[in-house]
Amino acid sequence: MITLRNLSLQRGTKILFNQINITINAGQKVGFIGANGCGKSSLFALLHQQLHQDEGDVELPPHLTIAHVAQETPAVSTLAIEYVLDGDQELREIEADLVAAQQAGDGMREASLHAQFEAIDGYTARTRAAQLLHGLGFTVTEKPVNQFSGGWRMRLNLARALMCRSDLLLLDEPTNHLDLDAVLWFEQWLKRYPGTLLLISHDREFLDNVVESIAHIEQQQINLYTGNYEAFERQRATKLALQQAAYQKQQREVAHIHSFVARQRWSYCPAPLQSLFIRAFTEGLHNPARRI
């Protein structure tokens, strides 16, 4: 479970979040939407501990493994499939320990490491990495990273993030460099992903096919809606209609109060007292439509 409690975040002079409270359950798939600059990417940076909140708490489960897509790819000569395999840090650590144990002739240590390797499906890792690359449109897996163009390097970063056996996957516009076939494959992969998925995307169809909740960021708050993007739009339209109706009703009540005061011709009542009378009625009225 991920909980943001009374959280506030400011970047420069701009307040992004003001005392927000939201809980995301383990295994939940949530799409984050909102106007550009509302704080979606900053929220992800906060969860990945690249930023720190100004107030409040970020509560994450202990030993949570977080995967995200790097925005830059170094021009390294590492082969594509090896670069993707590097996304599973524990796998690489066990492989290095195995080499050390073999060189030291430590049979017991080597046997223990082989058991750990099997427990994390290490023997299928290369096959799984190749499947990720194939699904994302790669036809070769032994080509050096520095021989791919920028768009294909971003796909490598995505494959590397998917290779990580994560509990929480943070994806910020992950379909930007994907063609249709890759997007369709990616949708199916995300549906099978067992961890918690937090996704930023402007692709409504992609959101509809992947997420089960929508987190809408507006006016420094986050409102969580159940269902995909299409369901969010229906709920949002209903909410706005109710707010508009409430606002119009309030305006009629205010107009009625002003009309009542004018009809009374309170010559005996000073103008300041008339203003107090009107304020006493209007200040108690809610004005939800102004928060649209």
Automatic annotation (TrEMBL):
Keywords of this entry: ATP-binding, Nucleotide-binding, Repeat
Pfam families given in the database record: ABC_tran (PF00005), ABC_tran_Xtn (PF12848)
Descriptive protein name: ABC transporter ATP-binding protein
SMART domains: AAA
CDD domains in UniProt: ABCF_EF-3
Organism lineage: Bacteria, Pseudomonadati, Pseudomonadota, Gammaproteobacteria, Thiotrichales
Domain of life: Bacteria
Membrane-spanning parts: none
Domain ABC transporter: 2-244
Molecular function GO terms recorded: ATP binding; ATP hydrolysis activity
Keyword Transmembrane: no
Organism for this UniProt entry: Candidatus Thiomargarita nelsonii
InterPro entries: AAA+_ATPase, ABC_tran_Xtn, ABC_transporter-like_ATP-bd, ABC_transporter-like_CS, ABCF, P-loop_NTPase
